[in-house]
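seq:
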Amino acid sequence: MLKYAAAIPFLIGVPTAIVGYKRRQDALSDPVFQRAMQQVRNDQRIIDFCGDDVKPGWLIQRKTSSNDNWVKYDLNVKGLSGKLKTTIIGDYLTHAELLILEQERQEYFKQKEALQAIAAKSNTVKGATDGAEEKQKKAAEDYIPVDFDAYSIPDRETAEGQRAELEPLPEKEKIWRISSLTTFVDADTKILLLPLPESKRPVKIQDTKYAFNTYGDLLARHEELKKVMKSKEEKNVRFEDKTSEEISQDIRKKRRIQMQKLNQIRTWQFLGMAGLAFFYLFVYRRFFAKKSVMNSAIYHQTINFLKQNQQVQGTLGQHIQVMNCNGKISPLKSNVDFDLLVFGSQQKGKFCVQTEYDKKTQQWTIHGIELFTRGDKIQII
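struct:
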């Protein structure tokens, strides 16, 4: 029974590990996840907190819906000296939807230029100028600028497949962006990596344009951004603006974290050993361990029966002495088979005994006894 119980963690753990590994590999191959991790590695705040060699942790939780156009990843990013809880949210628009938004952007700027021209010509007439300004303000309020530069991540099938560069993008082609990338230092402190604030953007949101017409345009932009982020990642150096005292503090912090991890491992080892000892002493020995038949109730019951049996006395002699008893009583089984090696006043023999324990009546029953001597086999029961 125990060997089957020991196989339960294996039967559960192996499929779970396989499914977890497959989900992790699925996340690591997602272009949205890859772009987010490049952004994390390029952020100096993450490097200063986590240290060098920032990588995603083992557990990556993915949430998505077939009816919605978003995906969410929850994970821990860790470096040599720390880790941060990270949330990645990506969404997509189709090529047709982005073309419509680009047309709205162009119409907005055409209308804006026309209104500015009307206002310039009518600067001598106050009423006309005020009217043009009101129309311009209303148009600005109605229009919501879209960050077209963010929509530069191809769909997984497009990134992994072979596409002709001059092949036009279909209307239903999904083009992704990272709508939110956040790391959490603690419950009250978080670092917002994306979207970038307007003050830190090289190009203002309202000045971005959508210019993808073919697969070549989209994939070329994707590869260009990967190379730019890769070069920034290579240039990032930890402690570049820190004093020797701050560097020493970071080294002490790293050692402290390593000692904490070591203490955690030792604590779990101690708890595991204590749990095994408790299981062995109070559970296994009482409910699972097999016990010797020697000096048990069925042992004495069998010996008394054999000493009084006339057939045994006629074969072995009036006086018999038990020299050895081979057999175990298992708490999980009701039937017990054991052997008795006995010496009699006439000759020696071996008894093979088959018994059964009735848990309801709490009594032993002897079903069969065979006696083996040097040349004979005698059925006692």
